[in-house]
Structure formats: C-alpha cells, structure tokens
Amino acid sequence: MQVLNLVTNDDAPFYEQQVEALQRQGITETTLSVAGSRGVTDEAAGSRSPLDYVGFYGRVLRQALEPYDLVHANYGLTAPMALAQPHRPVVLTLWGSDLLGGMAPLSKWCARRADAVIVMSEEMADALAVDCHVIPHGIDLELFRPMPRPEARAAVGWRDDARHVLFPYAAKREMKDYPRAERVVEQVRDHLDDEIVIQTLHDVPHARMPLYMNAADALLLTSKSEGSPNSVKEAMACNLPVVATDVGDVGERLAGVDPSHVCRTDQQLVEGLVDVLERGGPSDGRAAIEPLGLDRMGERIRAVYESVL
Predict the structure, then answer these.
(1) pLDDT tens for residues 211-232?
(2) Which of 38, 66, 70, 213 is the most buried (most CB within 10 A)?
(3) Coil, strand or helix at 74
(4) pTM of the entire structure?
C-alpha cells in the first residue's frame, strides 16, 4: 500500500513515530510538508502565508498523479489540498487544535467530504458529529519507561534538594497556558516546606524527554484545550504522576491512575499537586497506557486505510 501524507509539521515526533509504525505495517509513504516555518505560539501555522498553502496545493496536485492508493491529510489545514486533488481517496486525521480551536469550521467542512476521519479522543468525535475513528497517538513504550530518579536528575542537571514540577512545553505557547501553571505552583509553595521549581522545556530532543519525565516529581498540564496530549501519555509510561486540566482524553487516560488528578479549577489543580508532591512516589500509569503502544496504533490506522480502499 502506498500513501501520500500531507502534514504541516513533518518533524513532529509523534508524526515521525506514526510513519515508522505504519512502515512496520508494510505501508510505503511519501510526506509533503507545507513550506514556511512553524511558530512557537502556534500549533501549525507559524509564519506561513496564504501563498505558502497555494503553493502547497500545486505540489500536492502534481505528486498525487503518482500511483498512490490514498492521500492522508494530517491536520485540518492540509485537508483542502487533499480533497482538491481528484485522483485518490482521502483519509483526514484531526489532531486537536484544528477541531477545537478557531479553524473548526474548516475542519468540519473537510471532514464531511473525506472518505474516512481519524480523531484523537471521544471529545473530538462528539465535536465533529460525523462518523469517525478514535485513534490516539501511540507511545514508544521502549523509549518512555521508568528509570531511577537520581540518575535522571544527574543527566538533566536538576538539583536533588528541590521538588521539580514539569511543564513540558515552551512558556510562550498560549494554548498550554503557562501563566496558569505559574499561579498554581506559586500557591502550592504556600502549602509545602520544600523548594518547588517549575521546569519548562523547549527544543529538547524527543529521545531525551524520558530523562526529564523521570527527573520530575510531577507533570503539570494546564492546557486550555487538547486532543490527546502525548505528554500525559508519556508521563504515564514513565510512572510520573500527572495533574492536569480536564481537556481532550485526559480524564479517560488517567481514570484509576494513582496518584494523579484531573481538575477543572485552579483550586483543584493546587490541591492535586500538593497531594502528589506530599506523597512523593511514582504513579501506576504505565499499566494503564500499555494498550496505546505504537504498533497497535499502526494496526488501527492501516485498518482505516483498508476500509477506504
């Protein structure tokens, strides 16, 4: 099976892992990415102009003349180009912000015209209101695994005499709401005697992320909206406790995981983080996340391809 992939960000680790998982399923693919740069504060568009997308359509139209079995549009902004080529069936994957943010009308319009649609969570499926497949991004369970905290802290250079709360994004990413994370941690400091440090990450190689997950005492997610945040699933694979806003499929993923908390208010986030830091131990999240390995994700996406063909 040969697939033409369209994507806004071809070096996103979860997209690269998706490609590798499908290659193990016997899928041959070509990736076309929109020209231009992706901004820190924007999930996909960055500094790209409308002309970048016009040029992208020309590239898609030419490439789709090759003998592909289907076109897979990854992220809503690539869907119009996929649908405009007249030669191949279209599978559309929506990642989260393309359906739950400002571009929702475009994504919904395209979803009604695609041959199959994949979303990350039941929340997204409910928002879409068309038949779709819920297939969250898978996790590399060999890479993300528990390891001794002292060794991880030594590897990333964190002090061992403080509590470290991991905010695994750049502080400037508006949708992740770093100011709220700062407010929560500041209030938690009033409840605990230990020094608490909030750690943000930017441009960290994906292969080093497990070190930060294992060096931390807790992961704090304060996002305004999400599809199926990989950081939560990766933390679970490392048995790192998670305190998160109730977005995307976070509630479903963390159901029964202890200690971890899914919250709606700042006060709940504070109480949840205090509880996790006071207890101080790992969570039992890995057992809950094991069904979301990369190969299982690859099998499910291939099944969608087969249903279209």
Answers:
(1) 999 999 999 999 998 889 999 9
(2) 213
(3) strand
(4) 0.83
